Amino acid sequence: MMALATKSRSTVRQVTLRIPSLRIPAGVQWSGLIGGSMLLVVLVATLFAPLIAPHDPRDVYVGETLQSPSRDHPFGTDMLGRDQLSRVVYGGRTALMIAGFVLTVTVGVGTVVGCLGGYFGGRVDDGVSLLLNIVLALPGLSLTIAIVAVLGTGQTSLLIALSATSWAWFARVFRGSVFSVRETLYVEAAAAQGATHTRIILRHIIPNVARPILALASLRVSGVILAVAALSFLGLGVQPPIPDWGVMLNDARPHMRTSPHLIVVPAMCILMVSLGTNLFADALLARSGLSGRGGRD
Amino acid sequence: MNVRTALRRILAMIPALIGASIIAFALGVVAPGDPAYMALSQSATGEPRPEAVQELRAEWGLDDPVPIQYVKWVGRVLQGDLGVSYYTGSPVTEELMQRLPATLNLALVATAMAVMVGISTGVLSAVLSGGALDGALRVSTVFLASLPGFLVGLILILVFAEILGIMPTSGYGTWKHTVLPAVALATGPTAQLLRVTRTQMIDVLGQDYMRTARAKGLAQSMVVLQHGLRNTLINTLTVVGLYLAAILGGAAIIETVFAWPGIGRLAVDSITRRDYPVVQGFVLLAAGIYVLVNFVVDVLYSVIDPRVRAGE
What we know:
Chain A contains ten helices and no strands. Chain A is an all-alpha fold. Chain A has a single domain (30-58, 69-287), classed as MetI-like fold (Orthogonal Bundle). In chain A, α3 (84-120) runs antiparallel to α4 and α5 (140-151) packs across α6. The two termini of chain A are 23 Å apart. Residues 1-15 and 291-297 of chain A have low confidence and may be disordered. By secondary structure, chain B is mostly helical. Chain B is built from 13 helices and no strands. The mean pLDDT of chain B is 82. Chains A and B meet through α4, α5, α8 and α10 of A and α1, α6, α7, α8 and α10 of B.
């Protein structure tokens, strides 16, 4: 899905966290386990990339171009004779690094803005709502493309563009959650004891809304990874020779008939991360009592 | 919906449109290169004269303070003047309008596919909830929703064009050219729609009025189609609007994969050519369409759902 496009309404609603859920049957968490293990495989593979990769991902082996999988090149070689397995594990590093960065910015900025609006309400909230409405009313992917256009293609522009377009969604969800706990007794009690705003927010509000919201944020990982792959595929993201799944897919296009493994390998990696996060995050959400379906089915 | 609410909804679009225009304008300001110089060096042969560049800068008001430039720029945009493409030298509005029908064509076919397949399978899945077909549909939904559109496109090309050879790999013209890109574009939204429809339908099937309808002696199929589907569609509609907007965004990627001559591919090509006026025009147009689609969905929603109307 084009996760960058976000729902917009005339007013920022108190979000009741009704996102479409990917959960399979109720109570059964094997989907989460499968998802988690897929992510683990990718994480371990990228973390230990130097140990797993049989060759340098940028090394060109002349005379060994477009080879099918073999003992020396378990996933074959690409059109320049580069080892496909090495490229794919290092490509995972690129993707996960970008996703990690974008997610950190999203959660950081989203938390601050969401707390400001949700906790203080009134004028502050009016301002926050207006800002969120404007940002969310714009098509995310087109904005990302526009930012990349100005900053020039490359990894840094990609980081900035994706961060700039994904924080607002998180801020809105956070704002809604803060809103719903602001009126609770424990917050009132803390305020009555003379706790400062900072203390109330840090000690009482954030810990109470964080868990389900972080689970929700983890759903974003797949969105970001897909966006990175798509933009790099278009030549707007990560630039060669840096190994990246999107770039690999684009490189493989002219040769896909004769060497389909060039498409299959990076495609499987993207699918593993995306499917893995979706399954895992949904299991997390279900555990936090946020199945997104009000407990039904 | 009365006139006042309609007016309020229209006014609510304005901040978003202003935001979009500021972003698009900023893009032109921040972009490297002198627009006047770029435009002249495109239309004339050889190096443009410095006086000519100066003249054009004065004409376009490029030496004015930025806020004044913005106001003037908005004035020109409102008259349909989006500047001149650095690459082709023709007006950006013309370029975009030439390509827009192809994008709309693709987006509408994809949306129609997603709506038909997504809703019908969603209803089926809900009615047979818990059965084998439902299970299979749900597993494939998770799978399909995790696949990015461009990857679906690549796989479709590989299978149907390269290996089987029954569809063209890319291009524009006949219905055959439309099938693969439309399917690629529709896959994600179809999976989402299936899920939403299923959840909504299961919800509706448990309502009292459904029991009443069955108690009246209506056949199960009639109950599901007449009472169930109608109430399901109300909630599904909002989602369809959002997906249409998302489909327009995703079109940029799919259009490039299939060499489809739409505005998305034009935008991607223009970025590599550093043709900023075209990118600027694309951002404005995409944001405009997005805001408009959301507005239409809002209006439709209140027209279809009597409760929303009554609540106002």
